[in-house]
Every structure is written in structure tokens, then in C-alpha cells.
Amino acid sequence: MKLFLFFSSIFFALAIIVGGHFYYQQKLDLIAEESAALTAGIVIESVEKDVEQSELAFSGLLHEWTNSIESHELDITVFGSTSIELDNQPNESWPYLLHSKLTTHYQAPAINLTVINAEGTFSIDVLRGNYLQQVVKSQPDVLFFEPFILNDNGHVRLEDSIDAIDLLLQSLSTSLPETVIVLIPPNPLFGANFYLTQLEQLKQFAQTNNILYVDHWPHWPSTDDEALNDYVENARPNAEGHKLWADAMLKMITQ
């Protein structure tokens, strides 16, 4: 009887050891499976985040414009005052810098750029010249229009400037019905007074008439900050100002 109990005890102990081994092995397998699933989830999430970040680079206005054109080329025209071109260094002007950034860093279609500089011409005189014909001839998909508020400042009444801009836009919209027209303000000025009123009226005009208005001013130093003079000379952007303007436009049309 004692011998039977001895062997029974040994058998029972072995059973516990073997059973415990299988139990803990199952627990380890389960933990391993959960760990693998969790790791797989992190990888998928990471990949999804990478895709989202990649798509973000092509979102915004540029994404809309490139998707809307039927051809494999995007024609952009920049039309404005002397503020859009740097004296004696046109290739360092913000339109050309923006064009270079877009074609170098973004997988957009081929981008053709036309710059039409009306220099210091008053808005009323732009209506009488051949500038509009030049814009129409360029047949842009997107037209960046910097109205002649800065040219008119101190020379043309505000209401007359706004009326002239309205007529210019009406003419362009009629002649270029498929073109996206983007209104952009001219560069800011340090110590601006009445000029701020002009710009506010321009913004209100754009809002009232449902015109796309891209306001790059928040990317510049404030008009009461002397640091603005590092970017503007003789009321127009210098080389650093054109770089800042190009960077601001890049952010605003790709984000």
C-alpha cells in the first residue's frame, strides 16, 4: 500500500509539472502572438502616417489646380507692379524662386511661368495699356494678380483704385473664364498708415466678390516692426524680401 502511494505521488507530481509546462507554454505563445499583433499594428500605423504626410505635401491649392487641368502642364502667370520683380535680378524675384521650389521639391506637373510686370503704372492707366492683352495671351491656368494699390498709394483715390481693380478683374474673368484668379496684396511697408486702410479695403473687396485672396502679410514682420526694413527698400522688396515672399507663397499654396 505504501509503495502504491509512493508511485502515485510521483505520478501526480509529474502530471503537475507536465501540465504546468504546457500551461505556461500556451501563455508564452499567447503573449508572443499579442506582441506580434501589436508590433504589426504599429508598423501599419507608421506606414499610414507616412502616406498621410506624403499626401499633405501635395494638398492645398496646388493639389486642386493640378487635379483640375487636363494637360500635363500647369501654366501660371504672375501679373502685378514692380514689386513682383527684383531690379536687375529678375531670376531672384519671388515668382521665379517659387517656380524653382515647386519644380524642384514637388511632384507636380511641368509648370510654365509667365511674369507680366506693369512696373509703377497706376491702376487706371493699366486699364488703358496693353497689359491685359499680354495676360490673356499667356492663357494661364492660374493667375496671381497683385493689384496696383501700392502704385496708386498717394496718387489715386482709394475708391478709384478699387473700381479700377474691379474693372480689371471683370475683363480678365470674361476673357479667361477657365482661369483661377488669385488676388494677392503687394508687399507691406514699415510705418504704414493709410496704406493699411487700402489693404483692408482690398481684402473686403475680395471677400464681398468671392475672389480667392492669398494674404502673405502674416509671414512678414509687422508694419510697426523695424525688422521689416531688412526685407523692403524704397517701398519695394529687396532680395531678402523676395525670398521671404516666395517661401510664404509656397506654404500657402501647398498646405
TrEMBL record:
One Pfam family from the record: Lipase_GDSL_2
Highest rank taxon of the organism: Bacteria
Sequence ranges assigned to domain SGNH hydrolase-type esterase in this UniProt record: 89-244
Transmembrane regions listed in the UniProt entry: none
Protein name per UniProt: SGNH hydrolase-type esterase domain-containing protein
